[in-house]
Hints:
With about 700 residues, the protein is α+β, with helices and mostly antiparallel strands. Helices cover about 20% and strands about 30% of the residues.
Amino acid sequence: MTAPAGIHHLTGGDVSLVLEVAGGDARVLHWGERLPDAPALDPALLVPGRPHSSFDVPVRRSLIAQPARGWRGRPGLRGDRDGRGFSPRLVATDVAGTAHTCTLTFTAADAELDVRVHYELTASGLLLVGGTVANTGDDDYRLQAFDLVLPVPARATEMMDLAGRWSGERRPQRRPVQQGVWTRQARHGRTGHDAALLMAAGTPAFTFRRGEVWAAHLGWSGDHEEFVEQTADGTTALGAGELLDGGEIVLHPGESYDTPTLYAAWSDKGLDGVSTRFHSWLRGRDAHPTAPRPVTLNTWEAVYFRQNLTDLAELADRAADLGIERFVLDDGWFRSRRDDTAGLGDWFVDEHTWPDGLTPLIDHVRGLGMQFGLWVEPEMVDVDSDLARAHPDWISTPRPRADGGDRLAVPWRHQHVLDLVNPDAWAWVYDRIHALLRDNRIDCLKWDDNRDDVELAHDGRPSTHAQTLALYRLLDALRAAHPHVEIESCSSGGGRVDLGILARTDRVWASDTNDALERQHIQRFTSLVVPPELIGAHVGPPRSHTTGRVHDISFRAATALIAHMGVEWDIRRAAPADADALRDAIALHKRHRDLIATGDMVRVDCADPSATVTGVVAPDRRRAVFVYARLTASAFETPEPVRFAGLDREATYTVQVAQPAPRSLRSGLAQPEWLDAETVVGGAVLETIGLPAPLLHPAAAVVVELSAATA
Ligand code: DGJ
């Protein structure tokens, strides 16, 4: 068979991906700025010279990097057949595609593998990459890793990824790109609070609004790894893949493994340009929620486990009065669940707390015109539960019970993981959640997952991969059976935020902290990938339960504005003035939620990190809403002007404060004039010069509406 050869130019929006297939090998020649449709490109001219002390042939990074072609960096595909077949030499056998897609097929005769890599460049310029490896031999192939990798140009000298912890998710970290591999490994059995979310490399000092950036996200909710590799040849690549345990993926003859999807975005407009690509692609999906995101009340920080009909009906009354549209009953409603030590797995409405079932509460909530949501944590089990007593073997344990082993993984919040790879356990959970949805009028589930799943195993073999797929199957099956039910992905806050879970859920709970100051950062960076209308953000009580900080209602509400807004606070005890302010803030959010769900996120580059300016600008740039947040005290008497970016520079805008900071949070003798009176200013002026900053105490915010004057 003659190996295919040629250049394959994929386009999507203003992005190009150029692949070259030659001599049985394939590589990415370019990913970034769009090139002319038929670029005059002779690949022979791109072959580098050969330095001293090197292989006798020029060596370049293949699409799947291979030692068999002289690659000395990280091999793209790692595995073996009991020691043999460890170094596949992949030969391209087929290339097929369109102007926006390309599928390359390879065969490695020496390792008895077939490999396929698929690229899709979407209209929004987001690149989707996926791979498959199939065992064509007649003995087992143990897969260790299959990385999806994209080269980035040498001018990408700086990198950024996100790190974090519980209640402190998605903290950016930056460093120079240097020789070696910078890798972020997440071994949590879930995405992880410290997950990279985005691994980005860009031109020096790239910012939200400036610089060229190449960034990648792996859509996977199990163990995963993202990395930047710079090799001695001077090239740099960005990659990611599933992290597999030893023996986790053994491909029997004829079996294959599919990688998770790698989502990658290039932009010459900084990180905001990257997130615009993610957001527009996500918004174009059939399953993307299109109904206005209902303002939500979650009962957790209002009552915790103290559930009873009287209190919750009263809470619902207050919620409806404030304009809230969805009422979510959190943890504590099911059998023997009085605290977090027992009950997980017993998905029956508790007969003591709810003697007449949930119907009286649901009817009350619906009678008030609100939707009803219910918290569940289906992947988990408490040792102190009827389920564990009946089926102790359904608890995922590193040692199979048949061998006499009974060592459980280290408990976390007293709980363990239900082995969903076991079909009986899977079916039991499916039946219970299905029955709850069938027997109660439930509009949404808050799907929680409150532990790191280390040592996940089925029959004594590592099973994070299979457990993740079983979870996906569970969600898919429940969604198919109950298509009207929305699902929120929660995992001790923001421990499961990725595009794998978002393919089957409608909202992510960004963090367990409702502290507005922390949330300013968490939401800003979560929204690099996730559009704001899918990010749950709740107005918590005046004193944050996670940090002890006290924030004014205006700051808390402004922080939840550009998101899927909610409330998580015993509003029965809210001071009347706070309740009024919350009612106004909810009305303000409703006025702008269509814009929030369709517009471009703008994070203005502020020289002074003590303030943020975050907004959403309509695609036609006629309308925008911005939040100016003073986080900490400014180093200056008059802080840096407020600039509003992303506007139409030719247009004139009416600028109006929609939510001022209260007097108690204003500082100085006089505020800039525009804060008190509607003002008309040119787009270019707003973007380049800006308006004088409000003088505010720390933890204060001002919400600003802009609308273009009619031409
Ligand atoms: C962790 C979640 O993140 C919280 O919002 C709450 O649902 C608790 N679990 C309930 O146990």
